[in-house]
Write a structure and sequence with these properties.
The complex is a heterodimer of chains A (about 375) and B (about 900). Chain A contains nine helices and 19 strands. With about 375 residues, chain A is of the alpha/beta class. In chain B, a hairpin with a 2-residue loop joins strand 22 and strand 23. Classes of the chains: A alpha/beta (about 375), B alpha+beta (about 900).
Chain lengths: ~375, ~900
């Protein structure tokens, strides 16, 4: 089997193919360096407090795997369950938060509602002044959520897969597919052809390019998404805070830098860079919630490519080409799902049938309309 | 003291006092904190982050890796770039800054954004930059020159180079003088180009005391004259205080009149350090020896040159006391190192430019132009001053770089590559031992190049070390990516004035002062402030809302509806356009009528709704939800501009052109009659869902009145130009005074509409709800095409058991169902509990005398009459499923 893309998902898939299914005759081909795409560019937030049953299922499976992953892979992943706080700034945010908390609890996912005062107790640098432009009206907390060190996760999966006999091939770009009778028989690469009974794409935004080579289309739009870090700071921010309305998500990494995600750039692009005004806007938003950050400095900004489907949920499953599988469309949420994405994708490739957790995430849901629309509409009340 | 008696660009008549780690010192105007500390003999300025080793000042500019300080509340600054000022207080750091509680004075200081366009932006005012600026300026082009230093001149400020027979600074003065005479040229010093973005867009930060300016510059051409950074050498003990870049020592002597030591050993692979040594010796520094690994050494010099040799190690514990060379130890308090120069190619890299490793120069150099960026001078690998001035270049001898100097003993534990991150060659060996080969992997594994200086002295050195250890050519390894900003920039500067209330514009209506005076409680809806309710004396919210609701149902009440989005849609194809945008038909709507419309996304899910009036055959006035007005206009424009450019339609937002008041309730006709005496108001003359132009004498005259209702009661909406909004509001209240007219807010509006089962888009919908799910199937045309139509026919979207909008009546009418409650069939099953829906809206109804809710429930319409449960952790609320229309199902109140 060939897995195209040695990001977190591709590497985890390779590892679980070997571990869960005993399939080790696997090559993971990567056009750059392993773990160098979105795996190296995300803001490392892990949580599973999703609203819809299908999402909660796959993300909660991931969180349970995260909780044992360092031990299993024998690698310190700096996985820290410091809690993820999602803030509410409008009455509709409060309604949505309550709805999600109630759904989480009934799905067996930990969730709490915090009042503004409780939110500040949990995150003492949070500005909860009722006079602020978008005052904090409360928030949902998932205590089991947190962060991990993205690079180490990639390297741990790579090392574990390698130890089980998987081949990892860097600087090897897929340029086409070989097929026979409508079934994939291998990949063409910049370093030669590789024959394979099954080929699994794990290439995020570039899935569109690969799918085009294989003769089908995937409903994803790729956008730049930027993130940034500050200089190293003494501990100041103890948890993860996310705010949709003010558009902030921020944590402080182990070394001490503040890690923040910016807003998505609205245009489509494969260039791993976005507009600077997005960063400026992001800083203004951050200072509303965290006035103490005013004199912190941006050390480094960068961009990744988020692959967004019409319902902002991933696609994991079969394609119109026999033997060719797809795992893409994770948008802004891919890192946290890495373990379960690999787990269910490996199952799908190994058995030819989706795992129950990824069955709803099929490509044909865009034909049937059985969407998994986690974001919902952006409308605000009258 | 090692301050020289003469020379330098400091003002000896302006002494400045400052403290560092609590001790008082004196320096001069023109000093940096670093030069003043060196002048005071301070050798150790910081402690390293991982190993706690002492560190001294290493460089003289932004590339400084060691001298991190906290300065007057700035959590982390580089002492080499902090301009000395009187009373400055600094403290050394151990790699990490400390954020302290915000100081409102300092942190709220307004940083400004500046916008500029130019033909040529020159980054760097050194010899190459000034030459380029003069060349462009003389053509009459609009030129902006930015430079991070306090004055133009670049490295010429730091050397005693000559131009012709005169000091180079005389040339600088002449050049800046010429530039000052050119009206279209602007020179910005203390201004650092942070990053380069698409289409010649460069962001630069200008330092102006506690306030700064963020420049957003759009340039037709960007000339990068950003110079080069000197490279250190990697040998044992190369981190000891006293080890310093040779060019930095030269800068301290020439620009700041400071000798950073007494007796130096120069360790260089490059001729530039010979000139540095000569100038330093002339200033009084003793040069013990020049160690040059090149077999033939460098240019002729008066110093002892140990050619073909290396410094095998620096000795000393707290600071350097000597070096080991060729088996002997040479005592010194300064080791001046130069391993060559790296062109500063950050912005070029950000423009997508490719760097080529040049073997003759032993550095990565830009190859050609990239994205409107042209590179000149040292940044382009042109290291001779003559070349930078546009004269015939004088190339030096081929470089012979030494990336890694073995010590006397095996091991690389004190061979530092990144001083700030405490990364040694041993760490790089460890990374390579894991099988990592990419420079990106080694960077991430070791953290080399990721510190405050972003690898300005370490990134290429790390590549060199990898090259040496692996035996792979530099060019095959390449560099890591150059990411903005070039130097760190504060959050506050980027936030500019978008702070506090200016973070997001606050929109208020013309009637706002009245609402404030009346003591309204406001809520944010989009950017608008809307009255949520108007509490009377001693009233809480619940009491106020019940009173307001009763007034609307039994008497008359008024609401400020000015915030509703309003889009003027004009053009011969406006009717056809609305036909495609709305699920229901608008093309044949008569002039003078209004129609409620629903619009969907392409996936068939409800996006917005509102009432649209036809003003003329080719003109409609669309209303949108308050919070969605901008998104709807974007949506219309997206379709017009990308899918249907053939339609002759223009859309204009007129939300804040028309102020509106809803007059609601059985007595509303009486109020409007008094307000607009000329209007025929009986049901036949002014039927439901029509509008009229009329005269409202109390509010400037011309007005539009529409008979529409979001409450189920007889109701009118009166619109006048925004300017007359407050007058209209007061006129309505005066006209309604005999009937006890009651102002009401959004909460009452929500209750009234919910009693009638009218959904609020965004509250009762979430992007997964079709018009049919909402019970609006009557508004979905079966004969025409519209956005989302095809999706509505998909198998899942047309499923009969989708979540549908229903009413919920708690079995105990005193108990309320919280909004956001999930609904289940059986509350007693174990987790995971299957959920069948959720509560979207919940209120207490004066009209019903009980609580009620709206909910989206799976197959809800078939469940009417059954009981569902809301498990809430500590309790379970049972409720009966009902038709969503709970009040006046027959519509008897609509016509009064």
């Amino acid at each position: 089997m060939v897995i195209v893309g040695a990001g977190g998902h591709g590497l985890a898939t390779a590892y679980y193919l070997a571990r869960n299914h005993g399939i080790t005759d696997v090559a993971v081909v990567e056009r750059g360096w392993l773990g160098g795409g979105n795996m190296a560019r995300n803001t490392t937030i892990i949580r599973s407090n999703y609203l819809l049953d299908e999402s909660a299922g796959i993300y909660e499976h991931a969180l349970k795997l995260w909780e044992g992953l360092a031990e299993e892979l024998d690698h310190d992943l700096l996985f820290s369950q410091r809690g993820v706080l999602n803030l509410a700034h409008t009455p509709q945010d409060v309604r949505d938060g309550m709805r999600r908390i109630n759904a989480n609890r009934l799905n067996g996912v930990d969730a709490e509602w915090l009042t503004p005062e409780q939110a500040r107790e949990f995150c003492p640098i949070l500005n909860i002044s009722p006079d602020s432009r978008h005052p904090v009206l409360g928030g949902t907390l998932q205590r089991r959520g947190g962060i991990a060190k993205h690079d180490r996760v990639a390297w741990a999966y790579a090392g574990a897969a390698d130890a089980l006999g998987v081949d990892l091939i860097q600087d090897c770009e897929v340029t086409g597919f070989t097929t026979a009778g409508g079934r994939v028989t291998g990949v063409r690469t910049t370093r030669g052809d590789i024959g394979a009974g099954r080929v699994a794409l794990a290439a995020a935004g570039h899935t569109s390019v690969l799918a085009a080579l294989a003769g089908f289309r995937v409903p994803i739009q790729s956008h730049p998404l930027q993130a940034l870090v500050s200089e190293l700071l003494e501990p100041v921010h103890p948890c993860v805070v996310m705010s949709n309305a003010v558009h902030v998500y921020v944590s402080q990494a182990h070394k001490g830098e503040l890690v923040m995600g910016a807003g998505i750039d609205s245009y489509n692009s494969y260039a791993q860079r976005g507009g600077f005004h997005v960063i400026e806007h992001q800083m203004a938003a951050a200072l509303e919630l965290f006035p103490i950050f005013a004199r912190a400095r941006v050390l480094r900004t960068w961009g990744g490519i988020v692959d967004v489907t019409p319902d902002a949920s991933p696609v994991i499953g079969r394609t119109p080409v026999d033997g060719l599988y797809v795992n893409c469309g994770w948008g802004t949420g891919g890192f946290k799902a890495t373990p379960s994405s690999g787990w269910v994708y490996a199952h799908t490739i190994a058995t030819g049938e989706p795992h129950p957790l990824n069955a709803p995430f099929s490509l044909d849901r865009f034909t049937t309309g059985a969407l998994i629309d986690e974001h919902g509409a952006a409308a605000v009340a009258h | 003291m090692t301050r020289l008696a003469t020379g330098g660009r400091i003002d000896r008549s302006a002494p400045l006092t400052f403290t560092f780690d609590g001790a008082p010192y004196t320096g001069y105007q023109g000093d940096t904190l670093a030069s003043a500390l060196l002048a005071a003999g301070v050798r150790t300025v910081a402690t390293s982050i991982r190993y706690g080793r002492p560190r001294g000042i290493f460089a003289a500019g932004v590339e400084e890796p060691n001298a991190l300080v906290e300065v007057d509340g700035e959590p982390m600054a580089t002492a080499t770039t902090v301009e000395l000022r009187d009373g400055l207080t600094a403290r050394s750091l151990t790699g990490r800054g400390r954020l302290t509680a915000p100081d409102d004075q300092a942190d709220q200081a307004g940083h400004d954004r500046m916008h500029a366009h130019c033909d040529v932006l020159v980054v760097g005012a050194g010899p190459a930059g000034l030459t380029a600026a003069l060349e462009a300026g003389r053509t009459g082009a609009r030129v902006i020159v930015v430079d991070e230093r306090t004055e133009a001149g670049g490295t010429l400020l730091e050397t005693r180079d000559l131009v012709g027979d005169a000091p180079a600074l005389a040339w600088v003065a002449a050049a800046t003088g010429l530039l000052a005479e050119l009206p279209e040229v602007r020179v910005l010093t203390r201004t650092t180009a942070l990053g380069r973005y698409d289409d010649g867009y460069v962001v630069a930060a200008e330092r102006r005391g506690s306030r700064g300016r963020l420049w957003r510059i759009r340039a037709a051409e960007v000339v990068l004259a950003t110079g080069a950074h000197e490279r250190p050498l990697v040998f044992a003990g190369n981190d000891l205080p006293g080890v310093m870049l040779a060019g930095a020592a030269r800068a301290y002597a020439n620009r700041y009149a400071v000798l950073p030591g007494r007796r130096a050993v120069v360790f260089t692979t490059d001729d530039s350090a010979y000139a540095a040594a000569a100038e330093l010796a002339e200033a009084g520094l003793e040069i013990a020896a020049v160690v040059d690994p090149r077999p033939g050494g460098g240019p002729d010099t008066a110093f002892e040159v140990l050619a073909g040799h290396v410094v095998a190690g620096a000795t000393g514990t707290a600071e350097v006391t000597g070096v080991r060379v060729a088996g002997r130890e040479i005592a010194c308090d300064l080791v001046l190192v130069c391993g060559g120069w790296n062109p500063v190619a950050h912005l070029y890299g950000q423009a997508g430019g490719r760097l080529r490793y040049d073997d003759d120069l032993a550095c990565f150099v830009p190859e050609g132009t990239a994205g409107r960026c042209r590179v000149v001078g040292a940044a382009a690998g042109e290291f001779s001053l003559a070349g930078c001035l546009g004269e015939e270049p004088r190339p030096g001898p081929p470089a012979a770089p030494v990336w890694l100097v073995p010590g006397d003993e095996p091991g690389y534990d004190t061979h530092f590559v990144d001083l700030q991150r405490d990364v040694t060659v041993a760490d790089i060996e460890a990374a390579l031992a894991t099988g990592m080969t990419s420079v990106e992997h080694v960077k991430r594994y070791t953290t080399a190049g990721t510190a405050h200086d972003q690898g300005k002295t370490s990134a290429v050195t790390a590549v060199g070390v990898i090259s040496a250890l692996r035996g792979v050519p530099m060019g095959d390894l390449g560099t890591t990516t150059f990411r903005p900003p070039y130097t760190p920039v504060s959050f506050a500067l980027l936030a500019g004035r978008d702070r506090g209330v200016l973070h997001d514009p606050v929109l208020t209506t013309a009637m706002h002062p009245w609402h404030v005076a009346r003591g309204a409680v406001f809520e944010d809806v989009g950017q608008w402030k809307r009255p949520h309710h108007y509490p009377g004396p001693g009233e809480d919210m619940a009491a106020a809302v019940l009173r307001e609701c009763r007034a609307a149902r039994e008497g008359v009440a008024a609401m400020d509806v000015s915030t509703l989005g309003k889009i003027d849609v004009q053009g011969p194809d406006a009717g056809e356009f609305l036909n495609r945008v709305y699920t229901n038909a608008f093309a044949k709507l008569p002039v003078g009528s209004c129609r409620y419309g629903v619009m969907c996304r392409a996936d068939g899910m409800v996006f917005d709704d509102g009432v649209t009036m036809r003003l003329a055959p080719d003109r409609f006035l669309m209303s949108t939800t308050t919070g969605n007005a901008a998104a709807v206009l974007d949506w219309l424009e997206e379709w017009l501009q990308t899918e249907w450019p053939d339609l002759r339609v223009r859309c204009t937002s007129v939300t804040d052109q028309w102020a509106g008041v809803a007059v609601v309730g059985p007595r509303s006709r009486d109020v409007v009659a008094a307000l607009a005496p000329g209007l025929v108001l009986d049901n036949a003359g002014f039927p439901f869902m029509t509008w009229r132009e009329t005269d409202v004498p109390g509010a400037g005259g011309a007005a539009r009145v529409a008979r529409i209702s979001f409450s189920g009661e007889l109701a009118y909406e009166v619109y006048v130009p925004w300017w007359y909004g407050l007058a209209l509001w007061e006129a309505v209240l005066a006209a309604g005074e005999p009937y006890g007219i009651t102002p009401y807010g959004t909460e009452t509006m929500h209750v009234l509409r919910a009693e009638k089962g009218y959904p609020i888009i965004g509250q009762d919908t979430d992007g997964t709800v079709t018009p049919v799910d909402l019970g609006l199937g009557w508004a979905v045309s079966k004969t025409k095409d519209f956005i989302g139509r095809r999706s509505l026919s998909r198998s899942d979207t047309s499923r009969p058991d989708r979540r549908q909008l229903v009413g919920l009546l708690p079995i105990d009418g005193e108990e309320s169902l919280p909004e956001g409650a999930q609904l289940v069939e059986d509350p007693d099953v174990p987790v995971p509990v299957p959920m069948i829906g959720h509560v979207t809206s919940s209120y207490r109804s004066a009209a019903l005398g009980a609580t009620f809710a709206l909910a989206l429930v799976k197959g809800g319409r078939d469940r009417i009459g059954t009981t569902v449960f809301a498990p809430l952790g500590d309790r379970v609320v049972a409720a009966r499923v009902a038709d969503p229309v709970l009040y006046d199902k027959e519509g008897a109140h609509r016509d009064g």
